[in-house]
Amino acid sequence: HEHIHKGMTSRDLTENVEQLQVFRALHVIRDKAIAALVTLAKRAAETRDIPLTARTHNVAAQPTTFGKRLAMFGEELLLGLGDLQNLIDTYPARGLKGAVGTRMDQISLFDGDSAKARELEQRILGYLGIPQAFDAVGQVYPRSLDLRTVSALCDVTSGPSSLCRTLRLMAGHELASEGFAKGQVGSSAMPHKMNSRSCERVNGFHLILKGHLTMASGLAGDQWNEGDVSCSVVRRVMLPDAFLAADGLFETFLTILHQMEVFDAVIEQELLRYLPFLLTTTVMMEAVKKGAGRETAHEAIKEHAVATVKDLRTGRVSQNDLFARLAADPRLGLSATDLADILATHRANTGDAPEQVDTFVARVSILATQNREAAAYQPGVIL
Fold this sequence. Notes:
Blueprint: H1 10-46, E1 51-56, E2 59-65, H2 66-90, E3 92-93, H3 104-109, H4 114-128, E4 132-133, H5 144-156, H6 158-172, E5 176-177, H7 197-219, H8 232-259, E6 261-262, H9 264-278, H10 280-289, H11 294-314, H12 322-327, H13 336-346, H14 353-370, H15 372-375
């Protein structure tokens, strides 16, 4: 013990050991992100052609497909994974630098041969498996690196968190569900309930990560001279717990993807309810082709759409009869047959959504081929 510490400050040991833990933990999260993408691509392919009411500002907007919605969040996860991989590829250890980062004591031990001191550091890096080291670093590595680390964890989990938030909203309308594990109790007071508790857990983990991100940002840019360890009390909480939160998030997310249910019949009912509204832009273009003025057509459609919405919400009508009202309005010049043709032609018009799913699946397929072990990972049992 007396000999191994020669020429070293305590930070030559602790900084590198902590960084090795971070570096290896980054690989664990990366592999689980890959597994999540593979499962997400599988579910997206399965639901590629299920028409769905897409929403902007959480309000019905245009048709999409369920698979496209999964691909949308999956693409965000792909982007986060790319940044996480870049962090792994460029992650620098502090290395062996001595008390203030000059290697003075180590060079003295090697009789003034700085090349030998550098060679020793390279051998240590090779043993640790970390790709590179800071060169002009002080006693501690810059804590902005911790900010990059926690930021990457927050980034790579954002897509899964948004998907779970959306799935919670869909569950409230019985369009989809995260599934119901055997023996799970939805509510102690309401036996019929199937709460989205796993999705809620994912959102909770992501909020924890954002809290740790705030802690990491507080340390970045706050080092004195060659470094101090006033950050220690924060880092010993922030770093391990950030990885635990990210790991728990992906374990839960993978379970959700495996158990998720899609309720086609309810999705169809919702689409039929909103479809006339979703096609009003197409109706306006067809009316213009028939000779109606654009502003006149817009005003007529808006008038009937608002009235239809009001009647549906107050129970005056039980089905969306917007197209019947439009057919009866001479300002548009469209017959019931014209409008029926629009509905039939565009009912399943989800634009480029199916092809977007295909593109996402193809990208993930390449990733899976390159990372077969990670792609095959299965989550453990969650509570």
